[in-house]
Amino acid sequence: MTFDLSFDSHCHSFSDNLIEQRVVDRGLLNYMLIHAAITDALQKGLLREAQAHAPWVGTPRTFLMCAELWSAIEEGRQSQDIASIKRWASLEADISHFIEGGYVNEDLLKQLEDFKHEHWELRSVRPKPSLRVFGRFALPNVFVGTHVVERRLLAEKHSFNWEHQRIVCEDHWTAAGLPDPFTDDPDFAYSSYITNNATRRIEVPI
Amino acid sequence: MTYNYAAAVAAGRNRNRIFEKVVKAIVATCDEKGLTRKDIADRIGRKPAQLSKWLSGPSNWTLDTVSDLLFGIDAEIECEIVFNKDRLRSNQFNEEFFKPTLDSQYFLDTFSSQKRMPLSNPIHTIKFEEMSVN
Q: How many residue pairs from chains A and B have C-beta atoms closer than 8 A?
């Protein structure tokens, strides 16, 4: 019969095993990794956190922007013609809506097939030409927008341009120093990515 | 004169908020009364395809659209104007993202290259072999 219940043993085997198991089981390690990577990227200026456009609102979700996206928005803010102003302002309003915890469905934020690659698009559809922000979820309720493209330049879904932009999205993600994105493989439940006030489709029967 | 960018953002924001209110009312009513898109479209006198287009997003909505959709579920909007200076500031934030963790830099330095938890190799183990009762 062997019982090794010394203090040293208790500390190193029992509690450490429990912690390790907890970390592995619950994906806490991945959480810590990506949380650390985001913190690092924010400090280095590789990511920037988008702010809600109304200072009184809560911010239950987080929207982070890679350099290319925020520089495009900054440029859009300098627009002089009314159509461009509306287009970029509408995109910012959509981002703010996400941050504020507003209702989201895939008309606004859509996971691109094949789901396993974890590519998403934020669709800011009016005024035309509409804009598409590519990005991925770093964590539930934490979206990282990588870059923005005018919809008209993408042609049809699964075209060369579409597929190319998905690769560009991954390049920006990697350049920001982020590890693997959050995934709900194999279920890909919409509610796993956006945990409150979101449904993939509006549930009104046809 | 250039259109104020902040005004344009506020327009988009208000459009999204009204969309949320109206769509939620429609979903709740359909769920409660067993209505379909066709039922609502029939009541308004529009095609179901038009209704689906409206429900796909607020970007092409007008005040008439809001009225039509609410008419379709026998409802009306109740308006209240709130001055921004009178609003209470929310303290809601993304708790999951900002919750305190162990030193994040430590984890980045330790695991970022391997991205995997090292295999457990405890120095001591507890063995439960047999227990004799005296």
A: 185
